Amino acid sequence: MVNYRYLGNSGFKISEITYGNWLTHASQVANDAAIATVHKALDLGITTFDTADTYANTAAEEVLAEALKGQRRESLEIFTKVYFPTGPKGTNDTGLSRKHILDSINGSLRRLDVDHVDLYQAHRFDHETPLEETFQAFADIVRQGKALYIGVSEWTAEQLREGHALASQLGIQLISNQPQYSALWRVIEGRVVPTSAELGISQIVWSPLAQGILTGKYLPGQPVPEGSRATDEHGGSEFIKRFLRDDVLEAVQRLRPIADEAGLTLAQLSLAWVLHNPNVAATIVGASRPEQLEDTVKASGVVLDDEVVARIDEVLAPVAVTDPERTYESSPTTRLV
C-alpha cells in the first residue's frame, strides 16, 4: 500500500504516490481505460488525484469525476488547477484574474461533481494580474469552503516568497508547489527547494520519470517504441524531446545495475530517488493501463541509502539539468490565448 506524507506546514496528508491525468484522460486513452486505471489506483492505496481545468480543455476533470463516482469523498484528496486557457479561450478565459479564478473554481467543482477541492493550484504565475488580486480571490474561495488549501505550480523562489507572505496576511495557507522534478531535471534544487523548506511549502512533483525516459524503455540508437509518449501528438512528444539524446539514454542504461542491486525496476528506483528529497511530499504518476500502476506504487516506502543516491547522481551528472535559472522559464510573460 502507499505511504502518506504531510503537505507543507499543515496537518493535511496525501499519498506520496499521487495519480495525475494530464495526458491520459480524454486524450491518450479511451474513457473506459482511464476509469479502469483510476480504480486500480484506488485498489493499490492511492487516494490523492491531481487534475486541471485545462487538461483536454476541461474534459479530463469530467472523466476523473466519473471514475471516482461512488467513492467516499472524505477519503479522497482531489486537486485541480487554474491559469491556462479553457472553454472558447476568450479574453478572460485565462490567467489568474479574480474573474477567471472564480469562474474556473465553479466550473471545476461542477465537472468534478464535488462541493470542494482539497487543493486549488495556480497552474503558473500570472505576470499580467496583481498578485494581491489573485490571492484575495483564493482567500475568498477558501472562506467559501470551495477549496481547503492553496498551492501553485512552477513558481520561482521569489514568487513563492511573495505569494506565501500574501497568503499569511489573508489568513490562508499556501502549502505546495508543483514543479517538474526528476533525476534528470533538477532545476528546483538550487533555490526553489531551500526557499520552500524555509516557508513550509512542499513539492508535488510532475514528470518524475522524465516523460518515461527513466523507465529505460528508450534505447540509444534505436527508434522510439510505437505507442510511447514520444509518439504522442497531444503534447507528450514535445516534452520528451529534450531527453531523447543518445548520451542521456546511455546514462539511463547505466542505472540498471544499481536498480538490480536494490531489487527495483528503473522506474521504481527513479521514483524512490525523487521521494528521497525531504521537501517532496508526493510524486505524480500517470498510467494508460492499470498494470503500469502495479509497478510504480512499489516505490512507495522504498528508502534509498545515501550511497545509492550518490551513485545515481554520479551516473547522471553529465546529462542532468541543474541550472536554477531554468525555473524562470516556466511562466509565460503574457497570458496564453
TrEMBL record:
Transcription keyword on record: no
A GO BP entry: methylglyoxal catabolic process
Residues covered by the NADP-dependent oxidoreductase domain: 17-316
Entries under SUPFAM superfamilies matching the protein: NAD(P)-linked oxidoreductase
A Pfam family it matches: Aldo_ket_red
One term of GO molecular function: oxidoreductase activity
Segments traversing the membrane: none
Presence of the UniProt keyword Cell membrane in the record: no
Alphabetic keyword roster: NADP, Oxidoreductase
UniProt family annotation: Belongs to the shaker potassium channel beta subunit family.
Protein name per its UniProtKB record: Aldo/keto reductase
Species of origin: Pseudoclavibacter chungangensis
Lineage of the species this protein comes from: Bacteria, Bacillati, Actinomycetota, Actinomycetes, Micrococcales
